[in-house]
Each structure stands twice: as structure tokens, then as C-alpha cells.
Amino acid sequence: MAVPGRKLSRFVLYLSTVESISSKVLDYHFNLGDKVDKYPIPAGIDWLLPYSEPETQRVMSLFYTRFYNDQQSRRIIFGINPGRFGAGLTGVPFTDPLKMLDECQIENNFPKKQELSAQFIYQVINRYGGVEPFFNRFYITSLCPLGFVKDGINYNYYDDKPLTAAVTPFIIENIKAQKEIGSTGTELAYCLGEGKNYEYFSRINDQHGFFKTIVPLPHPRWIMQYKRKLLDYYIQVYLDKLVLHVEQ
After folding, report:
1. pLDDT tens-digit profile of 191-207?
2. CA distance 81 to 88
3. CATH class name, domain 25-246
4. HEC assignment per residue over 192-247
5. Would you call 92 exposed, middle or buried from its count of C-beta atoms within 10 A (0-12, 13-18, 19+)?
6. pTM of structure
7. pLDDT, mean of residues 112-116
């Protein structure tokens, strides 16, 4: 005869051994520096490696422990790769030092510069209901978890064909890891960018079958640079797609 108390104790033991999303995020990203030697990139392009910096690790730990200290699945939003003034500093995609302080209430020692994409994303987040409900439903990451710098400026994985070829195995490995981190299934992911990022993501998704559906969203930087007069319209585009699919 089954003993109810024994079943309950096994369930509690199982829960205690399941890693939280925050633990998985931090463990994965803090060890990414060990992987770069596996993926040599073209001369003249340097890796952007923020996750080994002590202040970045401290801020990331506070952020992910606050918003992701559970095992609840999230919808994943994939950006391109970290840039110097957002995730390249704070370690959190689309969260610059100012947004980390003002919106997430996490003190940090980074220069308080604003990043265009972060400005847009946090307007979306606030219209959605704020940081708590948004991060409770969504997990923002990047197709390539490390960024690139060329001639002192941000560089994207798709800006150079030899670079794209060099990091594609890394990106494939990363997508698999991010799916496991977010505890998400195969139904759907979002892609920030309707151009090259979406085209590339769709192509490798067709080859590997990561997700049944990829929902493209206009890239925040493109909106802020070229469509700022239509800001409310694009915020609503985001909200419509996020709300529609998260309720399915």
C-alpha cells in the first residue's frame, strides 16, 4: 500500500534538487569565458566578455535571484548578441546601468549611460505591468551569448560571413542551453529583429527544429533610431504579440 507521506517526501526531495532558473543562468554565463578558445574568430574582431567582471557578476546575481529564483517556465526572447553599454556592462540583456538602478532597484557601480534599446524595452515592460509580471513570464537572452568589438565599436555575429561561420556551432550550443535554462518547450520563441537576426535564426531553426514557431519583433534600436515618432505604435505591436502568444 502506498504511503502518502513517503510520496510527499519524495516530491519535496525532487523540488529541492531542481535548479532554479537563476542558478542555471548564472552558472552558464559565468563559465562562458572558458568556451571562447573552442571557437576562434577572424583577426581584427575581439570577443566582448563581460561575465568574468566582479561587478557584472554581482549585479547579475542580484538581478536573476530577484526575478528568476524559481523553476517556472518562461517564454524566451532572443536578441542578437551583447553590446558594450547594455549586457556588455550589466550582464543582463537590454538592461543598461540606469535601468538596472531605476527600474530594477539594483545599485551598481557602472557609468550611468543610457542605451537606446534598453529605453524601448523598459517602456514595453512598464506598459506590460512592470518588471515583476514581465520577468515572471519572459526571459530575454541572445542568440550569441557573447558580443564582439571591431575597431572599438559593437559588432554583430552576422556582420561578417567568416565570423558567422565561426560562431554558428557556438550559437547552436547556446540555443539548446537557453531552452534548458528557461525550462521552455519547443512551441515558440521570440526574435528581436525582423531582418538578419530573424533570417539567420529561422534558417538554423529549420535545420535543428528548436521551435515550432519563431515570432519576429522589430528590433528596439531600429525603432529608437528610425521610428521614434511611432513609439507608441511599436510598443503596442510588442504588447499585442507578447500577450497573444503567452496566453496560448
Report:
1. 999 999 999 999 999 99
2. 9
3. alpha beta
4. ECCCHHHHHHHHHHHHHCCCCEEEEECCHHHHHHHCHHHHHHHHHHHHHHHHHHHC
5. buried
6. 0.89
7. 89
